[in-house]
Amino acid sequence: MLTAKSLFQEIIDNDESYQLFCSIAASGEAQGGWENARIAALVAPGMRDLAPKITRHGADEDKHGRIFNALLKKRGLEPVAVPPDTDYTMLLEQRGIGLAHDKLRRDEPLSEEDIVVYLAHSRVTEQRAADQMNMLVTYFGDHPELGKAIHMIDNDETNHLAYCHEELLGLAYAGHGRVIQRTLRDSALAEIQVYRDVSLAVMSHMGRILRWPRAKSAALAAGIHGMYAWERAAGWHRMVDLKMPERRDALGGPMTPAPAF
Predict the structure, then answer these.
(1) How far apart are the first and last CA of the chain?
(2) Which of 87, 156, 194, 254 has the lowest CB atom count within 10 Å?
(3) CA pair distance 245, 165, nearest whole angstrom
């Protein structure tokens, strides 16, 4: 029976597919680390109190990238180039979601609206990350090779999502509510399309590596399209609601180290 667990187990058991999976994950996390570091450096003058939390967010993302690279090294593998059609971060930027890298490369302070856009975009993408890590913990939380790593990353992603909720609620109270809601909706609708496209691309590359029969690849593609249809109709709403999290000030302290990695 084709299940998410059996699918990931197949990817993890093969060195080449595992190599691609970890390389894609490490690249995305490293990119997120760079983006957050630049945003922290350029944060709007009136919002400097957010800089330490944005810095912590970026440090966590960098740590996740190192963890995925360490998992590769543990198996005697090197990172491989990430196919452009699987580059989630780049494809989101091309859709105009989040802050443009050209803007982040300039040494000009960001505006308050830029920071609102950053947090709204992060709330959407961190929801995706938290959902994915929750799934991996459910299926592989006790895996001898992956378990410790995914539990650590899952805890961080929960913190990141809590941070986005709390900060956006504060900014909404301060008068940014309309911009937040508009940006959340636009980001969510774009993200579910990019996630669909990236999922199809990843499964195509995995299918080639693992030599899946055409029927299996077709079934997986149909499942991805079905998930997109559900998210387009209703599922995207879970990515835009805001509620005060149980974890308050989730990024207010130092980064949790990962000495084992």
Answers:
(1) 34
(2) 254
(3) 7
> For residue 38, what are its two tokens?
């630049």
Say how far apart CA 245 and CA 5 lie, in whole Å.
Answer: 29
Q: Indicate the pTM of the whole model.
A: 0.94
Give the separation between CA 207 and CA 213, rounded to whole angstroms. 8
Do you know the residue count of the chain?
261
Distances in Å between the Cα of 196 and the Cα atoms of 10, 137, 190, 254 are: 21, 22, 10, 35
pLDDT tens digit sequence for 112-156:
999 999 999 999 999 999 999 999 999 999 999 999 999 999 999
Using the Cα atoms of residue 143, residue 146, residue 151 and residue 154 in order, give the sign of their dihedral.
Answer: negative
What amino acid occupies position 36? N
Q: Give Cα 173 distance to the centre of its chain.
A: 27
Does residue 128 contact residue 143 with C-beta atoms inside 8 Å?
A: no
Nearest to 121 by CA among 35, 221, 229: 35
Distance CA 64, CA 36 (A): 14
